[in-house]
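From the shared-data thread, chain only:
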Amino acid sequence: MHRILIVEDDPFKYRELASAVTEQTPDVEVMTASSVREAVASLGDDPFDCVLLDIALPSHDLQKGQGAPTSLPSGGLEILMELNYAGRKDPIVIVTQYPEVEIEGRLYPLSRVRKKITDLMQVNLVGVIQFDRLSGAWRGQLASIMRKHK
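Structure, as C-alpha cells:
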C-alpha cells in the first residue's frame, strides 16, 4: 500500500488532488494536513511515498480557544525545512495555484523553484506544478511525476 500525504488547506483543491492520486494509485492511503503545524506532526518516522505540498498554508488549524491562524504565503517552505532538518528523502511535489513562489524574500517563477529550493536544502523535490481549477493540465503533470517516482 502506498502512503501519500496531501498538505492543503483548500477543501476543493484537496478533493481534486486526492481524486487525482487515487486514479493513479488505487492502493493508496491518503493522509491529509491543512496547516504547517499539522503537516509537521503528520510526518512521523515512516517516510511517505509522496508528499503533495501547497506553499501558502496557515500556521495552524483554527481551534476553539486558540488565536486565529497566521496565513503564511511560504508556509510550505517551513515543512520543506523540517524535512531537510530530519534528513528525509520523501518525494515531494509542490502544487500551488500561484505562478510564483516567494523564497528568501524574492519571487521565483515556478520554472525556477525546484532548482532554487534544492540549492538551499537537501530535499527530494521531484516536481512543481501550478494547479488551475479551469484546466486539467496539472493532472497530467502530476500523473507523469508520480509514474516516474513509484
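The CA atoms of residues 6 and 52 lie 5 Å apart.
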